[in-house]
Design brief:
globular; 5-stranded mixed sheet; single chain; disordered N terminus; 6-stranded mixed β-barrel; mainly beta
């Protein structure tokens, strides 16, 4: 029913603002287990999510370990006539890519693939790039075409057509490609990102987009916000370091006890392409001990009956405390409860401990990404 309501809301928007309903997919863990994939296979896919934010000669690092958990995706189309794809709207990267008919690996063949010969508006660039991951590379060739997102039409948009995709874990994903929404500095040099072209082609009412997540689905709103999806005032946090949506975290508390972990400053990247809450690696052991969680092959386990008595987590951002209750940060999968965290040993560029505020955090808070004022807003989700 909630999904139907979100779909109907798409009809209520003015020009220059659109809603894209987001579906919550199965996790790769669920798909693999359904296919009888051995447990050790899953363990081998784990990596450091912080590698996503380390730039090198490759275009970007994007840790597919993030996508071992669940994720949210929506539909776009590319070409004339339109070819439809399910993409992950990712504020932690800046490139748009989809599978293509140039790619013959099982991961590509099992998903929707863009056929450039069927689009009258496609033009090739004849440049290839590699997106590097912790355990495999994704190679793409670049092209231009028309991209359509609901009523928004972006002409001559550069995007990547995959040439090769590793089976692990792309084959097990429900979505086809990724639409990056970070700043252009992390995109392919010399080309406009989709967000830049939306603004230059006057496709958005305001240089703002926002996300709403629930346990069952959600939506991304391009060009504005919806006050009906949140309550109270919006807390604004300035972006402190591009090209990511990176903000200051002044303190982190477990229950009523301030940890002091951010006494010298912490940074947090607001990343819709990451599902879990990512804790700086040097703090993970103390964090789990405070919650009484135990490590397993499937995460950090707690007794489900203990969840109501677990402490609330607090993030001090822009002088305010943002609480994250255990009902949000503990995942209950058919009576098997795990704390929804992972760790990174990658610091921020300027040395501060780095947190990643992923979908788990953003289920609690409606998030607003203000490109015009370089700030991120948080308000309690309705």
């Amino acid at each position: 029913m909630r999904w139907l309501v979100l779909a109907l809301l798409c009809l209520q928007l003015g020009q220059g603002t659109v809603r894209i309903p987001l579906r919550k997919g199965r996790s790769i863990q669920e798909v693999m287990r359904d296919k009888g994939v051995p447990e050790g296979f899953l363990k081998d896919l784990r990596g450091d999510p912080g590698r996503k934010y380390q730039l090198s000669n490759a275009v970007a690092y994007e840790p597919l370990a993030n996508y071992l958990d669940t994720y949210y995706f929506g539909e776009i189309s590319i070409g004339t006539p339109p070819q439809h794809f399910l993409v992950l709207f990712d504020t932690g990267s800046a490139n748009l890519w989809v599978p293509s008919t140039y790619c013959q690996t099982p991961a590509c063949v099992d998903h929707a693939r863009f056929n450039s010969s069927l689009s009258t508006t496609f033009s090739g660039i004849n440049e290839t790039y590699t997106l590097s991951y912790g355990f495999g590379d994704l190679s793409v060739v670049l092209g231009y075409d028309t991209v359509t997102i609901q009523d928004i039409v972006i002409s001559n948009q550069e995007f990547g057509l995959s040439l090769d995709e590793p089976t692990r874990p792309f084959y097990y994903q429900d979505f086809d490609g990724i639409l990056g929404m970070a700043y252009s500095g992390v995109g392919i040099p010399g080309y406009n990102t989709l967000m830049q072209n939306m603004l230059q082609q006057s496709q958005l009412t305001e240089p703002i987009f926002s996300f709403y997540y629930s346990r069952y689905g959600g939506e991304v709103i391009l060009g504005g916000v919806d006050p009906q999806l949140y309550s109270g005032e919006v807390l604004w946090a300035p972006v402190v370091q591009k090209p990511y949506w990176k903000i200051d975290i002044e303190e982190f508390s477990i229950g009523l006890s301030a940890t002091g972990w951010c006494s010298q400053g912490c940074h947090g990247i607001v990343d819709t392409g990451t599902f879990l809450l990512t804790v700086p690696g040097q703090f993970l052991s103390a964090f789990l001990q405070a919650l009484g969680a135990e490590a397993s092959n499937y995460g950090f386990v707690v007794n489900c009956s203990d969840v109501p008595s677990l402490p609330t987590l607090y993030f001090a951002i822009s002088g305010s405390q943002l609480p994250l209750p255990p009902s949000v940060y503990v995942l209950n999968n058919d009576g098997f409860c795990t704390v929804g965290v992972e760790s990174t040993y990658v610091p921020s560029d300027s040395g501060q401990p780095l947190w990643i505020l992923g979908n788990l955090f953003l289920r609690q808070y409606y998030s607003i990404f203000d490109m015009g004022n370089n700030r991120v807003g948080f308000a309690l989700s309705a």
